[in-house]
Amino acid sequence: MSETVDQLSVESLVVAITDVVSDVESCEPLELPPLSDSVDVDALESFCAPETSGGGPVAAQSLVVSFAYSDSVVHIDSGEQTTISADPATDETLAHLDISPSDEGDSLSHCDS
């Protein structure tokens, strides 16, 4: 599951991330923990915001950030359009983030399957 965000704001970014993760985890977005418990949402907004130089936009540079959230690993690609995708958190996907399942504490199983 992935979603593209055209008009970026903190609210639209949070909604898009929780929508994608709730689809992956087969639950309602309100069943997920607060996103701010997993990542600095303001930093994500800055990461995804288009760069400007001298009053005009700079050519889009595609940057990707990934982080663990709930039972998922979220990927954000901030190219010309911001694309958000998620995969279930597994030992393999967490290893790419240098996170072991024990580092996540009680964050697993937020949604009833």
Look at the helices and sheets and give the structural class: alpha+beta
Instruction: Tell me, rounded to a whole number, the average pLDDT.
Output: 76
Order of helices and strands: EHHEEEEEH
- What value does the Rg take, in angstroms? 15 Å
What is the assembly state of the chains in this entry?
single chain
Molecular shape: globular
| Strand adjacency order, main sheet | 1-6-5-4
- Helical residue percent? 25-40%
**How many separate helices?**
3
Separation of termini?
A: 17 Å
Q: Give a count of the beta strands, DSSP E runs of length 2 or more.
A: 6
Extract low-pLDDT stretches. 102-110
The share of residues in extended strands comes to: 15-25%
How is the main sheet built?
4 strands, antiparallel
Structure, explained:
This protein has 113 residues and is of the alpha+beta class. The strands form two sheets. The protein has a four-stranded antiparallel β-sheet with strand order 1-6-5-4, covered by helices on one side. The chain has a two-stranded antiparallel ribbon with strand order 2-3. The chain is globular.
